Each structure stands twice: as structure tokens, then as C-alpha cells.
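hey all, quick one before standup. I had two proteins in the batch that finished overnight and I want to keep them in one place so we stop losing track of which output belongs to which input. First protein below, input sequence then C-alpha cells straight from the run.
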Amino acid sequence: MIFIRSGLLYSCFLFSLAGCFSDNLDESSHTDIDGIADNSSPINKITPKSRIFAVGDSLTSGAYGFQWRTSLSEVTNLQVINKGVGGQTSKQISARMGVRPVYISPYVSEISETGVFGLAIPGVHPLTSQGLNYLEGRINSVPGMLYRRRDDGSYYFDVAELLQPVAVKEGDLFKPTALDIAANDIAVIWVGRNNAHELDTVLLDVLRIYNLFAKVTSRIIVLSVINGEAEYTGTTSHSSITAINEQLKFEFGDSYLDIRQVLIESYDPNESQSVIDYEKGTTPSSLREDNVHLNAAGNQIVAYTLYSHMLDHGWL
């Protein structure tokens, strides 16, 4: 049920909301799973249940114990796989997703045995201070796990298997393991808030991530970048964010969902600051926990808006 009163959107899902906004489902509990086994006989093949990949920064991973993934999972009855990491820019997200090159500078010239060896990453880092500190992938033909140490941010690679020695040099690539995406999976891409001043970079990274999923599924949602406290109409940050959103809308068309405008129009008419925020074109204080991160009500609106979009497109 939805109740709208003087511009304030109140959404009420037809399920229990107990615990929906606690950040109790991290990436480790939402890692890719095989789901239904693939029987070799075509007669017995069953289409696996859709999953939702949630790609982004802290607006996706959650902050202050609030996030929208759990409630979206509840209302859709689908697994939501958390691919959000707080604090990451679009460049770091696209690197982590395997669609922006991750160059390495190894401290060895040859991988000659299993175990670990140190390396540096001179360019964009796929692992940062928040989120998991490891990422599965390959260096040249060698499979293993890339680790970032929590204490000093240094990197090392743990070789999983080695059939023969492999030369390695500066400028070689670490390639993250590709996601296991199915044709009926859904992707929600919410990227760009942490480097909204880099319009061309954000657009390129969103396009890269979009194309990663578009190779397999057409069920993709690109969310607009939101602005926050004091980022009012006329400010530099407001102009940067609206410029990005205009380009996202142009580029992605029906896949674009203007969550920023939905949140703005969901202001509380009974709170003076919320009204001011609405009139000046930013996410209302009534829906924020700090200057930009959403509170429980704000995350609920995001979840319901996504759910409604998926229903409208016949994905559920």
C-alpha cells in the first residue's frame, strides 16, 4: 500500500518489516551461489530463480545500520547479492567488477610456486578500506586471491594453483573472476556519488558496468546520483550531479530510474527543513541519517521504488 500526503510518500510493504533495515546481510552472506544444479539432460533443466545484483557504494552497502537490500529481497522474494562497498568511487567500483583494468607491479619476476607474493597496484585500487579485503581472480594465467592488508593497505596475491612457472612483470593485469550472471537476473547500478565531479569518468564507468550485465541480461536499472545536505540548486555540487543524471537518462533511457527525484518529492511537509530541502532540490533531511546517507524511511522508499519498477517491467 502507498499513502501520499502533501508530497510525502509513505510506503508500506505487505510483509513484516522487522529487521528489514538492519545491515545484517553483508557480501559474505550474499556471495554468488550456483542455485539449482544444471542437469545434463535438457528435459530436466529448470530455469534458476532470478537474483538481484546490487552494485554501488555505501548507498548500496548501507550505513548506520540502514540499507534497502533486505527489504527489496523480502518483497520480491529474490536473493539480493551485495556488490556495494562504502567509500568507493566509480573507478574503484568498475575495477572491482572487472571492467576497468587493474595494473600490478609485482615484487617478483616469476611465479614459481603456490603461496603468496607481494605486489603494488599503481593505478585504480579494486580493494579499499571498507568492504571485503580480498578478491578472487587471475594474474596472467595464474588463479588465486588478491588481498589488501587492513593495517597498511599493502597488497599480496595468494596463488591457488600453478602447473608451471609463469613470468610476471610491471604492467601485467589482475583480472577479477567474472560474475555468474543469468539471463533472468536483475542488476541495480547505483554509482557515482563519491566522484560526482568527474562527469565523463562516472559515465564511462557506469557504461562499463552496464555492458557487463547487458551481455547476458536486459534487466538492468541505472539509478540517478543523489545530492544531500546544502547541495542546493545553484551550487557546484548540485550542477555536477544534475549534469550526470541528465547524461545517464540520455544514455540509458528506459533503464534509467530517477531515484533522486523520487526522494525529493517524498519530503515531509510537517518538517521545515524537509520542506526547504524539497524547494531547493535536494534529498530531504527527513529521509537522511547524515548529509547524504539515507535513514530507514529513505531506504524503504528506494526498495519500494525498485520493486515497483521491476513489477512494471514484468520481471517479477
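OK second protein, same deal, sequence then C-alpha cells:
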Amino acid sequence: MLLIYKGDIILRLNDERVGLGYTINNEKVKVEKWKSCDDFQVSEIHLNGNTAKFWTEFVGGCGELTFGVLEKIGISTINAILKIAELIGIDMELIGYGGLKDAFAHSWQFITIPGKVHKLFYSNIKFFPIEQRSSPFSSQESWGNHFWISLYTQEKQYLKDLFNKVVKEPIPAYYGLQRFGEESVDTHLIGLYILKKEYTNATKKILEGKWGWYEKVLAECLKDHDEKNCLKLLPHKLVKLFINAYQSYIFNKALSKFICEKYDLFDIRVSFVGVVDKFGLPTKVIPFLMKNI
């Protein structure tokens, strides 16, 4: 099914597994995917206006945490933080960060690490200390991201004109496949099972995917313990990613409905996904970590 959107913009039926009903595409321009991580660069922007890519000079300060810049190439934020935690000998949960940056990219982001940490270089991971402070870094200090994207095409002028058009007439933006695991495209289902307290289904779904460090931890634990307790061994931030993936799925479904049926975006009614408080507002609580579950 095809829909014409503002002349030469095409809405294509895409991947319903993750709620992608339609995506914006243009048949006139053939663009090659970036060839290396340096073709897709992303740098976090601090609330004070500083960009992580260009803010690497140590300024001093005092406190029990080291605030600095994590530079990584071709590795996810979670795996990069896990490696830093292993090198320093701490729990990865103690490392503060504001958000996840793409794995297949060259990225810079702010993090805090317990103790006084000097410059760190390991393979495709680097850490540059900026200052000592007392509070852990979180998304509340992050203003957004700056992107540098290289596109390879023979239709440079047409593509430039198209970008200028998009700036003036914004187009709908979905959560992409990377939010859902990309290869297996099922992390949102893990989140759904956790929310429904179907811990057996959640662990089975995790172990169906490509095995990494947390799949091995889970499989080893399941030899002697039940599914609920084994899920507790996983980093809390990782479990939240599964729930966030399901939230993203709901968002994509709502956006698809808006595009297809031409609803007023502000008239769409969707339910909150997650554990709510006594006022019915969403919380960041992970279900199996609640004492009464």
C-alpha cells in the first residue's frame, strides 16, 4: 500500500512488528547506507550548551564522582559502560549517563564514574575526565544531541532541496528498528512480558536472541533459580530498556494511526505503558523489583 504525501514524498507500508505502519521514503533519490561509523556521528549536548565532542579539557572541581566524556566507536552505550565498569572494578549501575547512543556510530556522551578517574583508553572506548563532582549525571542535564551524517548519492542537489523542504514542513518520525534490537526485533515483547509479570516468557524471549554477556548470565542463573529472581540479576537500566522498547512500540502504533487516518495528533488517545502511581501517572518502577509483587 502506498500513500502520496505532499507531492513527491511517499509513505510506504513497512514493519508492523514494531508498529511501523508507514515510513517516509522518496523514490527519486537513491542513498547508500553509511560505510563506516564515522559516517554517523552523534554528540550529546549539555544543558550549559557544551557539546561532548568538543568538551574534553579537565577543569578541576571537587567531589567523589568523575564527570567526563565517553567516546565510543561501533559499540553500544550499555556494552561500553559494562567494559569501563570491568576495567575499573565497579558495578555498572554506579556509572551515570543520560541516554543511549547508536552502536554503529562514532559517538560522544557525558557520564559520571565513582572515584577519581584519569583518562581511559581501551580499544574502541575512550574516557576523558572533565571535573570532580558530587551528583551523578542523568538525562536531566542533557539538552539533546548533535548529529553529523554522511550520505552517498548522485542526486546531491535534489537531496539538499528535499532536506530544506523537510525543515520547513516536518515529517513524522518513528522509533527505528535499533530501539527494538534490530536483528531480532523483539525487545519490546520482552518488555511486555515483564509488565504482565510473565517472567518465564520474558526469559525465553531473551534467550532466543543473539547471545551476549547478559544472555549468558541469565542462562547460568536459570540452572538453579526461578525466572523472576534471575531477571533481578540483570542491570536495572537494561531491564528498563525492554520496557522502553514496548513504550516505543505503542508510540509507533499511535503515529501510524495518525498518518493513515489523518487524525489530529493532539486528539489521539493512548494508554500509558508501565507501572502507575496512586494518581494514575507513569513511574519508572520495574515490576519485579516492587516488594508487593
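Flagging for whoever picks this up: Residues 1-13 have pLDDT under 50 and may be disordered. The longest strand covers residues 65-73.
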